[in-house]
Fold these 3 entries.
Entry 1:
Amino acid sequence: SDGDLDIDDPRRDYEGVVNSNQSSDDEPSDSNEPRSGTSFNSQLPATGIPVANNIRVNSNTRLYHILNDDSDGRVILSIYEKKRKLIPKARNRLTRFVIKFERDKAVENLEPRGQLLNFMISSTKFIFWSNEIAKTFPGERAATYYTPYESVDDYEINASGKLWHHYNYIKSKLKESGLLVNLRAPVDPLPLDVNIVEQLNTLRTKVEPWCTVLELWQRTFEARKNFLIKERPTVVEYLNAYECLRIQKAIDLRQLEKSRDFLITKLRNIKISNVNDNGLLHIVTTLNSDVQDTVIFYLLPYLIAGGLTSRKRKRKSTTNENSDATVNSNNVVNPTVEVEAQQASGKKRKPRVAFQERRDTFILQLENVLDLEEIVNATN
C-alpha cells in the first residue's frame, strides 16, 4: 500500500511524502567501503581502524539526542553499540534520517496540497551534520558523509558524500511528487506582442543600417527561439526567412545570441536563495528582449565573487604545513582553518562584501536621468 512506500518511491502520494516515518535499507550505497569477503576485512570497520571493545556512542552531541528521541534513530544507535561500528545499512539509514530531519523542517508549515518554492540545505549545514556524525560515532569519517565543493587551480571538485547524494535524490522525488516547485520546468511562452510581430516582419527583409538590424535581432530573440522550438524548420528554411542571415555580417547576430545564452545558463547553474530574484530567473526567457536584458543585468552580481571589505589582501602561504588541516584527528571536517588561525592570533575575520553592496557598486537607481552625473560623482 502507499503507506508502506519509502519517501524514495515515486509512487508515494502527498500525505505519504510528508508524514511517512518509514524507511528501507535497499538504497544503493555510494561508499567505497572494503568488502567483507575475507576474514581480514570482516575484522575491520569501513574506516580501516581495528574495532575496540571500549568504543561507545558519544551521548553529548545534538545528533545523539535527536536520534534517541526517535524510534528509527534508536535502532541506529543500537546497531552501533552492538557492532562497535556502523555497518553499511546503518550508514544508509543514518543518511536518510538526517536528510528526512531537514526535509520535515522544510514542510512542517506547508499548507495541505501546498508546494515548497525551494528546499535547500546549505554547505554549512552539511558540514555541521557530517561533523556531528563523526563525533557521535567514533570511527566514522565526516568526509564519508560530505565533502564540500572546492576549486583548486583550474580544476573544480564537486561536492560529494552520502548526505549530498541523498539530498539531491530526495529533491528529485519531492519535485516528482509535486511538493517542490520545479523552477527549471519549461514555461509556455506568452502570445506575441503586436510590436514584436511588426519587428519580425521588418527583420525578414532588412539588412541596412546594420545597427538597426542588430537591435531588431535582439528584440525578437525569444520570439524566434520559440518559433524554432515549436515549428522546427530546416536550416535552409530558417536562413531563407531572414535576409540578414545570408550576408557576411550574420556572424555578429550569432555572437549576440551566444552571449545571452551563456549568461542565462551560468545563472541557472548557481543557487539563488532570494525568492524574488529566483522568480525573475524563472521567467526571464519568456520576456521580450529589452526587459530580458534588464533582468540579466540585475542578476549579474550573482556571477561576481564577493571580496573582503578590506582592500588589503593577505599573502598566501607557500608552505604545505596546513595542507592536511581540513580534517583533524577526530575525522571531523574543518573548512575554517584560516578563521581559527586568525582567532589564535587575536584577529577577527574580515566580513565579505554583502550581496546588495556588490549590486550597488555598478547599478544606480535614478528617479531623474538628469541626476546621473551627480550620483556617479558622489559614488566615486
Note: The longest strand covers residues 150-152.
Entry 2:
Amino acid sequence: MTRPPEKSALWAILAGLGWPLFLGSWACAMFYGLIFWGPLKTELVLRYFAGFWISEVATWMFFVGLASLGFKLVEIFTQEPALRKIRLPLPEQGDQQVEEAGDLIDYLESLPARMRNSYFGRRLHDALEYVERKRSPQGVEEELKYYADNDAARQQESYALVRIITWATPMLGFLGTVIGITMALGGLDAEKLDSNFQDAISGLLSGLYVAFDTTALALSLSILLMFVWFLIDRLETQLLERVDVRANEEIVGRFAQIGSDRDPHLASVERMCVAVMRATEQLMQRQNQLWQSTAEAVQQQWGEAIVQSGQRLQASLSTVLAESLDRNAAAIEAQQLSMVRQADTLSQAVKAAGEVAGLETALNNNLNALAGAKHFEEAVNTLTAATHLLVGRLGQATSSERRVDLQSGQQERAA
C-alpha cells in the first residue's frame, strides 16, 4: 500500500521558517510599538533595546526564535490526543494474523490527518507497513527502535532555526562590542583631549555603552531563549518516550509468530496451513450460503404452495357455501310462500266455519219453528238443500278440510 504524503512542501517551509519569521516580526513590531509609544517607554528600556541597531536586530531574532518554539509547543500539545484516542482493533480471538496488517493500515488512514501525521500515528503506520511487507512480525522490535531514533533525529532537526538563533545572538552581541569599542576608540582625538577632556571622555563612554549594552542584551536574550528551548525540548522528549511505550504495547506481541530466523521453513509451513484453513473456511462459508439459499427457496416454494392451496380451498368453500345458501334461501322462500298459502286457506276455513256456525244456528231456529208449525217434511227438504249448498262452498275453499255431514246430523236429530 502506498502512503500519502504527510505534508506538502509549501506547508513544511511555512511551518519551519515562514510562520516563525512572520509571527516573530509581528511580535517584535508590537514590542517596539510599546517601547516607543506605550508604557515601556523608559530610559533603561530605550538604552538597551533601542540604543543601537544591533540591539534591535538581536531583539528581532529573539522573537523569531520564540515564535518557532511557540509552534513546537503547540505541536506537542496537539499530539496528546493521538496517544489517547488511537487504539488498534483487537482480534476476536487469539493472535492477530499477519494478513490483517493491511486492514489495520486502512484503519489508521481513515483517521483525521492531525492524528495520522502525529508521532504515534506515523510510528504505528511504519511498523504495520514493515509487518505487511515482510509478511512476518519478526524483527519488528528492532524496527520500532529504528523509528524511535529517526523521530529523535527529526526532533533535533526541528530546532535548527532556534539553534542558529541561540548561536548567532551572542555573536551579534560580540559584534556590537567590537563596533562599540571601535567607535569609542575612533572618537578619541589628541587635540580634543587637550582642549576639551570632558567631551572626549563622554564620547568614549558612549561608545563603551554601545559595546557592553549590546553584549549584555544579546547574552540575556540568548540565555532566556535557551531556557525556553530546554523546557520545550524536555516536553517533546517525554512525548517521544510515551510514544515508544504505546507503540510497543500496540505492535509487539500482537501478531502470531511461528518459527524464527534459524528455522524459516516452519514459518512457510505455518503460512501454508493458514492458507489451507482460510480456503477451507471460505469453502464452508460458500457451502453454508448455498444451503441457506436452497432452504430459503424451498421454504418460499412451500409458502407459495400453502398460500395457493388456501386460496383454492377458500374459493371452493365460498362456492359451496354460496350454492348451499342459495338453495336454503330458495327453500325458505318456498316454505314461506307455502305457509302464506296455508295461512290464507286456514283463514278461509275459519271464515267458512263461522258461516257454518251461523247457518247451524239459523237452521236450528228454523227447525224449531218448523217443528212447532207441523211442517217438518218441508223443513227437512230445505235443510237438505242448505246442506248441499254449504258443502259446495266448503269444497271450493279447500279440499283438505274436513267435510260436515249435515245429513247424518239431521238424521241424528230426527232420531
Note: Residues 342-415 form one domain.
Entry 3:
Amino acid sequence: VTALNYLVKGHLIKTDLNKVLLDYETEQELDQAIAEGKKNHKGQPVSKYEHLYYSCINSSFCILANISKNCAWLKSTLGQASYVVQTMIELSRKRKETMDLDIDEGRIKISNITTQKMCVFNGKFGGGGFLLSPLGVINDGLLDVSYVNRIISSMGIIDITKQAENGGLQNYYDFYNTYRAKTVKVINKSKRVSKSGEELA
C-alpha cells in the first residue's frame, strides 16, 4: 500500500508497511474482501498476514534507549560488552515471532523461524561504526540478515556473557545466524493480537 524508503550510507533499503485502514475501514470489511477473493495492489489475493496495522507494537524503537539506561550495573565487570548483554536482556522481554525468510528471490528459503530478534541491515554501515556482521567488511551493496533462532529468557542471559567477553555474539553464539543477499523478504506469520479492543497484525 505504501512504502518507506531509507537511504542508509549509499544503500537503499525499502520497507513495506501495510496498514489495514488504508484499504478497509473495519476488520469486517477486510474479512469480506478476503471472502470475495479481492486482489491487493500486487494482484494477489488479499490476506490478513499482509496487513501490519501498527506493526511497531513489538518493534525495536525503544530498545536502544533502554539498553543505554539499564546497562550500568554490568559495566564494572564486562566493560563495553555490557551493551551486548543488556541488548539480549531487552530482547528477552519481547514476545516471540514466527517468520519466513526469502533470500535473493528464492535462492534460500527458511520457513517458520521462531525468534525475538531479526535484523536486515547494511553490514558495513549498519552499526554506526561498529561491524554488525562478520561478513560485512566492505561495502559491496549487499544486505545482511541476522536472527537468533533461540528464545531468550532473562535467566538465559548468563549463558551469553562469556561470548560477549570473547568478542561478540556474531562470532561465538551458536544460535546466531547471518546471511548476505541482494534482496531479503521477511514474512511475519505470527498470531494476530489485539490491544485496547483493536485488532492488530
Note: Residues 20-53 form one domain.
